[in-house]
Amino acid sequence: MRIISGEFKGRRITAPKQLPVRPTTDMAKEALFNILNNKYYFDEISVLDLFSGTGNISYEFASRGTQNILAVDSDFGCVKFINQTSESFEMPIRTVKSDVFSFLEKSKQKHDIIFADPPYDFEIDQFAKIPTLVFQNNLLENEGLLIVEHSKHTDLSELENYSHSKSYGGNMFSFFQQTQ
């Protein structure tokens, strides 16, 4: 995987093979950040990266100037890899080793963007828990955005606060916002 823009543009990051991850493709990541670039000043936002895996999305935000990034994953190897990588690049990424659902139930901190990349084989009720907990616990700032990455075979359009989806190859991003 590589960082596609910002201070660390072009830097390649090689994750250990044994990590239980499926990194977001460069094509999908580039398309996502083109959308976000038109909506946010990256140096002014707070980002929560759920099911962060290799930290791929967190590195992209850090490379673009985001200073407040929290990456959450339940796998010790993933958290260790993110810590090592962010330290070597001197990126401001904090990590928490936790089950994402437990973390969301207890969290009180608000974020401008919450990105979730759960396992593609989640059942729809598992996917539904993510926006439910985010909005129930008021974890987004005003104008904040929850983005859930999933397979094109999963339809999240019936979930509460769903806004729209974008498809890139086999990847989809579903966007959720607080409804007025």
Automatic annotation (TrEMBL):
GO molecular-function terms, A-Z: 16S rRNA (guanine(966)-N(2))-methyltransferase activity
Keywords on record: Methyltransferase, Transferase
InterPro entries in the cross-refs: DNA_methylase_N6_adenine_CS, RNA_MeTrfase_RsmD, SAM-dependent_MTases_sf
The keyword Magnesium belongs to this UniProt entry's keyword annotation: no
Alphabetical list of Pfam families matching this protein: Cons_hypoth95 (PF03602)
Superkingdom per UniProt: Bacteria
Entry EC no(s): 2.1.1.171
Name the UniProt record assigns to this protein: 16S rRNA (Guanine(966)-N(2))-methyltransferase RsmD
Organismal lineage: Bacteria, Pseudomonadati, Bacteroidota, Flavobacteriia, Flavobacteriales
